[in-house]
Structure formats: structure tokens, C-alpha cells
Design brief:
Structural class: alpha/beta
Shape: globular
Strand order of the largest sheet: 7-6-5-4-3-2-15
Distance between the termini: 36 Å
Number of strands: 15
CATH class: Alpha Beta
Radius of gyration: 19 Å
Helix content: 25-40%
CATH topology: Metallo-beta-lactamase, Chain A
Strand content: 15-25%
Number of domains: 1
Largest sheet: 7 strands, mixed
CATH architecture: 4-Layer Sandwich
Length: 386
């Protein structure tokens, strides 16, 4: 693990520095923003690994609202030094130390709340709110995945745990996740990547079950691994160190090694083969890019009808609701896969969802509840079934 962290840090700086030249969005996923990116992907023979099949997959968006004010988030990142800054030093909760932007500290932040996590994360958040930058802004990304096997048995997985302790506790209780965790009904937690809005809410989940089997990308830094321990985790931490890791029949974790802003490295996405339908892809942020994710799945996996059936999650195109003409190329390129259901949200961006609709893609709209800003896509509390 230490060797992997060292390698990841070197690759991060090398790769993200390239992204910094292109601005904020380019540094978030180097393969996301042009249909021409297909030409850069390696041309290799399809392996079509047979990983089984499931009857259906249902996704509930627990929270897709990672933060509530884009301007405040970017103000903090710029103030802390820009795209390559270490997220643990920005000064955001739960790692604020009262010293302001760019002076945050993992050790000092955790020390201030160590006695309260995981038993009372809301009280811990209240303390951090007094010594952190923009403590009202964090929300979080998390969803519940319910898999139905061919024999009718059902299995539940939690994908990510959000950011704000207060917001995520409310969101978990709203969707009954607290009780599912406590009863062991949720079989495993899968962390897509180390970013603040997907991972820092970890103690909230631990409050309800600190022994749940947990999967994490092998690019996690020492702070991230320490945070898992400091959050009271006592279970089996499964480090994903292979490109393909089968979770269960018909369910595959795909590891992508990609540098991401705020000194994060790597992301894990999920693939499901739905019987008689085809492939379903689920992502947290998809920093590796839609083109990379779809091309990898196409090359590596065997799925029914040899077709893509659906996609869900953050697709990382216009997370800050801006638009560049080259993004239109990406929207057009996505059409080659002929998805039958598109369940997008989070960092996909509302502008992107509208572009998808204009392109004729089957976007599933939401209900705009629980502080979701628009019904353009699936929001907090919404569901989709493949």
C-alpha cells in the first residue's frame, strides 16, 4: 500500500499538472470532454469476460447534492492554492482548525472531534462548524444499490457516504439507511474515490455499522486510510488493486487510475449485466470520463444482447453549470452506445441533462425534492430501476 501511495502521488502531480493548463474542469478528469478522446484510447481486442447476470438493479439517490454553492467551493479552492492543493489542507470540515483557508490540518481537525466519532457525528460537526471554512456548504453524494439475482434474492450496497455529517445523517434517516446499516441489511460499502463529497461522511455510516465490509481504490492516500481507522472502522477493508474485481455474479467493480483535483487519485465504477437487457454502468463522479468508462466496459466485459442498457450517477461534464462547445462533441459521442435509460445527476450538471434531452436521449427526470435544485435529472430521494 505504501508503494502504491507513492506511485499515485507522483502520477497525480504529473497528470493533474497537465489538466491545470486547461483550467478547472480539465483537471477533474482528463478524458471527459471531447468525442475525439476515443481516438486516444488504445485499440485492443475485446476480452468479453463473462461475469454472470442479475435480474434487475434499483438505485436510490440518497444525496446527489455534494455542495450547495458552487461559488463558495471554487473560492475556497482558489484561496487554498488551486487545483493541485491537498484537500485535507483547505480548511473545510471536518478538518478545519480555526486557522482559515489553506491552513487546515488532518491531524488537528480529527483531534478536535476524535471523542465524538463515530458515536455522535452531529455534535462533531457542530464543533467543526465553528473552526472551518464555509461549513454550511457541504452536502454529499451517496446512493443505495439494490441488486436482484436471477433466483429472486436481493442484495443491498451503499455507494459512497457523502460529506457533511449533519446533512448525511438527515439523508440516511430519510431513506432508512440508518436502519439498513444497523441490521446488516446492506452487505457492503463501496467508496468510489477519496474526494471530500463522497468520502468525508464516513463516520456517519460507521455510527450505524462500523464492521460493514468496505471496498476502496488502492490510490487512497495515508490520510484517507487513517481517516477510516479514526472513524472507528473495525471491519474488513478490501483494497481494490485490480482493474476488474467481481463483487457478486453480474456485478463488477472497475478500477480507473486517474489524477483528480485536490490531490485525489483514482476512481471505482460499477458494471452490471441485466439479463435480457444488457450492461448498466453506475458511477460516483466518473472522473475517468464517460468515454474511458464505456470503452473499458465494452472491451473487458460480456453482457446480454451485447448492448448498453443504462447508466446512472455523476458523469462529470458540467459540474459547475458552465458550457464549452467541445462538450457538445461528448454529448454526441455518447449516442453511439444507444443507452435505453440515462439516470444522471450530481456532477453531470443540469445543463448537460438538458443537452441530453435535446439530443433525444432517454433521460429519467426527478422530482426536485429535499433541496434538489431542479427536476432536470434524478435528485435526492429519487429512484431508477434497470
Amino acid at each position: 500500500m505504501n508503494d502504491q501511495i507513492t506511485t499515485s502521488r507522483r502520477d497525480f502531480v504529473k497528470g493533474a499538472a497537465t489538466g491545470a493548463v486547461g483550467g478547472v474542469l480539465a483537471g477533474m478528469g482528463l478524458y471527459s470532454y471531447s468525442g475525439a478522446a476515443y481516438d486516444r484510447l488504445p485499440k485492443v481486442a475485446r476480452e468479453q469476460h463473462d461475469f454472470g447476470a442479475v435480474r434487475s438493479v434499483k438505485v436510490t439517490s440518497i444525496s446527489e447534492t455534494s455542495w450547495f454553492n458552487n461559488a463558495h467551493l471554487m473560492e475556497d479552492i482558489r484561496g487554498a492554492g488551486g487545483l493541485l492543493v491537498d484537500q485535507y489542507t483547505i480548511g473545510w470540515p471536518p478538518f478545519g482548525n480555526g486557522k482559515g483557508v489553506a491552513k487546515g490540518s488532518y491531524a488537528e481537525g480529527v483531534a478536535s472531534i476524535a471523542k465524538m466519532i463515530p458515536s455522535d457525528p452531529v455534535a462533531a460537526w457542530a464543533i467543526q462548524a465553528k473552526q472551518s471554512v464555509h461549513p454550511e456548504n457541504p452536502g454529499g453524494y451517496s446512493c443505495l444499490i439494490e441488486v436482484e439475482d436471477l433466483d429472486g434474492s436481493k442484495h443491498k450496497y451503499l455507494l459512497d457516504v457523502g460529506w457533511s455529517y449533519d446533512w448525511m445523517e438527515q439523508s440516511f434517516k430519510r431513506e432508512g439507511i440508518d436502519k439498513m446499516l444497523a441490521s446488516g441489511e446492506i452487505e457492503a460499502l463501496i467508496l468510489t474515490h477519496e474526494h471530500f463529497d463522497h468520502f468525508w461522511g464516513f463516520p456517519v455510516a460507521m455510527q450505524f455499522n462500523n464492521k460493514i465490509p468496505t471496498y476502496a481504490h488502492n490510490g487512497f492516500y495515508k490520510e484517507g486510510l487513517q481517516y477510516i481507522k479514526d472513524s472507528g472502522y473495525k471491519g474488513d477493508l478490501k483494497i481494490i488493486d485490480k482493474q476488474m474485481t467481481q463483487i457478486r455474479p453480474g456485478m463488477m467493480a472497475i478500477k480507473f487510475d486517474v489524477p483528480i483535483i485536490c490531490r485525489v487519485y483514482g476512481e471505482v465504477s460499477l458494471a452490471f449485466n441485466v439479463k435480457d437487457k444488457g450492461l448498466v454502468l453506475i458511477s460516483g463522479c466518473n472522473h475517468q470520463g464517460i468515454l474511458q468508462m464505456t470503452s473499458t466496459a465494452y472491451q473487458k466485459l460480456k453482457y446480454d444482447n451485447d448492448r448498453f442498457h443504462g447508466i446512472y450517477g455523476g458523469l462529470h461534464i458540467s459540474p459547475f453549470e458552465d458550457w464549452d462547445p467541445k462538450y457538445d462533441d461528448l454529448v454526441i459521442s455518447l449516442g453511439k452506445w444507444n443507452f435505453e435509460k440515462v439516470g444522471c445527476n450530481h456532477c453531470t450538471g443540469h445543463l448537460t441533462a438538458k443537452k441530453f434531452v435535446e439530443a433525444g436521449y432517454p433521460v429519467v427526470r426527478g422530482t426536485a425534492r429535499f433541496r434538489t435544485s431542479s427536476p432536470d435529472y434524478l435528485g435526492n430521494g429519487d429512484t431508477i430501476t434497470f
